[in-house]
Design goal:
Strand content: 5-15%
CATH architecture of the largest domain: 3-Layer(aba) Sandwich
Largest sheet: 6 strands, mixed
Number of domains: 2
Number of strands: 6
Number of helices: 12
CATH class of the largest domain: Alpha Beta
Structural class: alpha/beta
Strand order of the largest sheet: 3-2-1-4-5-6
Length: about 280
């Protein structure tokens, strides 16, 4: 069988790298490159452990609203990023191109949508995918062909989230995750869900009635119905984003050369070593 395609939530990984790698890690011009160095290091570790067929990385377009903001203006408001990580987020997609990774970034789409589009495209072509992300939104994509690799707090071990694990964690099937999040809400994205409905009650309602529409058909507060249907649109990943899947493994030597230009010599040496494996 062909090895799976590794699909990376680029922004999610970059934020984790930024906060776990010392800001004293700087480049040739003296500016921090800790997010970049940590990002490449984390990805290399997953590559070595999983040996996927190729890598695709999905990115947000910072500072540009998407259809989600138009549907629900409070969506993800209040997030403030330090200038240092914003600068590095601007550099990372170009570095990924140097590595020969597939890169997904498009105005009007979030990384989530590009991740979903790449995953479902790979499955349509008969392949399987590993989604490297800490974002539980990706659970809606989990299937026999799509597994989430999620970091485990306090360790380098990655959890493997398959359909059974989604049920264990959330109490719903992967295909019910969108309805679950619409009902229960998501505080990190400023989605309130239905007043009085938390994760446990949302899972219980979906177990009883199967779908969001099944729940709403029996809901006693009609003023909630329009909002929760809107929330469902907001939380659902859109799989129509333009993506070009990579054809083969990374060009580690070209990636190492790009890192040396930044002054990241140590991680560049480790990257070049992969080219000789």
């Amino acid at each position: 069988m062909q090895a799976p395609l590794l699909i990376v939530d680029g922004d999610n990984l970059a934020h984790r790298a930024y906060h776990s790698t010392p800001k004293s890690v700087v480049g040739a011009d003296g500016t921090p490159i800790n997010a970049i160095v940590g990002w490449v290091s984390m990805l290399q570790r997953v590559w070595t452990e999983e040996r996927p067929r190729a890598v695709f990385v999905a990115w947000d377009t910072l500072g540009v609203d998407t259809y989600r903001n138009r549907l629900w203006p409070p969506y993800q408001t209040g997030r403030v990023f330090e200038p240092s990580i914003v600068r590095q987020l601007g550099l990372l997609p170009t570095i990924c191109e140097a590595f020969g990774f597939g890169v997904g970034k498009a105005v009007g789409y979030e990384a989530d949508d590009l991740l979903a589009s790449a995953a479902l495209a790979e499955v349509r072509h008969g392949g399987t995918c590993l989604l490297y992300t800490a974002d539980r939104d990706a659970y809606q994509l989990v299937s026999d062909a799509i597994t989430v690799l999620a970091p485990k707090r306090g360790t380098r071990v990655l959890d493997r989230i398959d359909p059974v694990e989604v049920v264990r964690r959330l109490g719903v099937l992967p295909e019910q995750v969108i309805d679950f999040k619409a009902l229960a809400g998501d505080a990190s994205d400023k989605i309130p869900g239905i007043r009085g409905v938390g994760p446990k009650s949302a899972a219980s309602l979906l177990l009883q009635y199967g779908t969001l529409e099944g729940v709403l058909a029996r809901w006693s507060r009609p003023e909630d119905v329009e909002h929760v249907r809107l929330f469902r649109q907001v939380v659902q990943m859109q799989a129509d984003a333009p993506v070009a899947l990579p054809g083969g493994p990374p060009d580690w030597q070209a990636g190492a050369d790009a890192l040396r230009v930044l002054g990241a010599d140590r991680i560049a040496d480790r990257t070049a070593a992969l080219a000789r494996c």
